[in-house]
Amino acid sequence: MDTTREHIGEADNLAKLRRFAQLAPQDPDVHLALARELLAKSQVEEAARELHTVIALVPNHLEARKLLDQVTRVF
User: Fold this and answer.
1) What is the per-residue pLDDT for 16?
2) Where are the domains of the chain?
């Protein structure tokens, strides 16, 4: 696959997830998906903010708490 197209597709995916998070600010699944995508792109600080949002919406969200724990270990 053409790496330029691959990077454009990844950027589009990230932009779509950011837009979905804006449109559905109360949806923890959207914020979690955005956090995962950000982590995959090493955008750790923004991912941590999204994980905090998930936890604010669902305080006992186990996956978000585990990911946030891993992220904070990196800092």
Assistant:
1) 96
2) 3-74
- The span from the CA of 30 to the CA of 71, in Å, is 19
Mean pLDDT by runs of 10 across the 75 residues of the chain is 51 92 97 97 96 98 97 81
pLDDT of residue 12: 87
CATH pick for 3-74 out of 2.40.50.100, 1.25.40.10, 1.10.3720.10, 2.60.260.20: 1.25.40.10
DSSP the chain: --HHHHHHHHHHHHHHHHHHHHH-TT-HHHHHHHHHHHHHTT-HHHHHHHHHHHHHHSTT-HHHHHHHHHHHHH-
Alpha carbon distances (Å) from 32 to 3, 17, 25 = 26, 10, 11
